[in-house]
Amino acid sequence: MSPARAPRPSLLRWLPLVLALAWSGVVLATGVTTEAWQPGYDLAVYRDGARDLLAGADLYERRTGRGHAFVYPPLAALLMLPLLLLPPTAALVVWDVVLVLALLAAGGWLLRVAGLCARWRPAALALVVVSDPFRESLVLGQISPLVVLALVAGVVLAGRGRPRTGALLAGLAGAVKVTPALVVLLGAARGWRRFAGWTVAAGVLLTAAGVAASPSALRSYLLGALWDSSRVAAPDTISNNSLAGAFSRAGLGDGTATALGAGLSAVLVAVLVVLVVRAGHRTGRPGAGERALHLGLAVSLLTCLASPVTWTHHALAAPLAALALARHRPVVAGLAGVPWLLPVLQQADALGGVAGALLAQTRPLSLLVLLALTLRATALRPSVTTDG
Question: Which pTM was predicted?
Answer without folding.
Answer: 0.91
